[in-house]
Amino acid sequence: MLRLAIPKGRLLAPSLQVLAQAGLVLAEDPQGSRKLSFAGTWHEVPVQAFVIRAQDVPVFVERGAADLGIAGRDLLAEGRPRVFEPVDLGIGRCRLVVAAPEKIAQRGLPAPGARVRVATKYTNLARAWFAARGVEAEVVKLYGSVELAPAVGLAERIVDLVETGGTLRANGLIEEATILEVSSRLIVNPAAWRTKEALVRLVFAVQRACKEEHA
Ligand code: PRP
């Protein structure tokens, strides 16, 4: 039995697609379902797939509640879970950026020695990026709708994901710098990798499916 953690939300459809290309068959479609756990098979191997919050996938895999999962490089860089990252799936491509309202962006990025207030879900990455530039960041942790923070005085800048740029534009924010290029990775529990032969075969099947997709 292999246990697989799949992120719900915008990564669900592309994740299911790449797993199906690798040969995963689920008894029912998780899209539109309120169920959290789905039985299936990968060739003759029984699989249980969990559809969970993207942020929780690394926790499931690190702690061995799932043998493998799909997680964005943003979450892996922020949380540094002890998991293997054998395959870049090439899905969920976006960027983690620093952005600010036009008036603040016009003045340029803060100089070394300055202090900034930054709203973000990515507190570790934001703090580290500014610290590497000699800037002390006071970080306001938010869980979503981060683009609202400058308009309501929570912070002068934000660090958040950008895909099309539509959310930044709609909220009057300008991109100032890229912190990280993001795509989703297959992640694997290290102990399961050593003990479950079917897991190794599934990982290689996913890798092959990705190569064929991008060939
Ligand atoms: C994500 C991200 C940005 C937006 C970027 O938010 O945090 O807000 O998408 O996409 P765009 O550049 O194509 O506009 P999400 O929709 O996941 O909601 P959230 O604010 O609750 O995180």
Give a verbal description of the structure.
- The protein has 8 helices and 12 strands.
- Strand 3 and strand 4 (45-52) form a beta hairpin.
- It has helices at residues 12-21, 57-62, 73-79, 102-106, 123-132, 166-170, 190-195, 197-214, and strands at 2-7, 24-26, 37-42, 45-52, 68-72, 84-88, 94-101, 115-120, 136-141, 157-162, 173-182, 184-188.
- The protein is α/β, with parallel strands linked by helices and 215 residues long.
- It folds into 2 domains: 2-92 and 183-213, Periplasmic binding protein-like II (D-Maltodextrin-Binding Protein, domain 2, 3-Layer(aba) Sandwich), CATH 3.40.190.10; 94-182, D-Maltodextrin-Binding Protein, domain 2, CATH 3.40.190.
- The radius of gyration is 19 Å and the shape is elongated.
- 1-O-pyrophosphono-5-O-phosphono-alpha-D-ribofuranose is lined by residues 144-145, 147, 160-167.
CATH superfamily of the largest domain: Periplasmic binding protein-like II
| Measured distance between first and last alpha carbons | 31 Å
User: How much strand?
Assistant: 25-35%
| DSSP strand tally | 12
- Rg: 19 Å
Broad CATH class of the largest domain: Alpha Beta
Which fold does the CATH topology of the largest domain refer to? D-Maltodextrin-Binding Protein, domain 2
Number of domains: 2
Mean pLDDT over the full residue set: 97
Distinct small-molecule ligands in the complex: 1-O-pyrophosphono-5-O-phosphono-alpha-D-ribofuranose
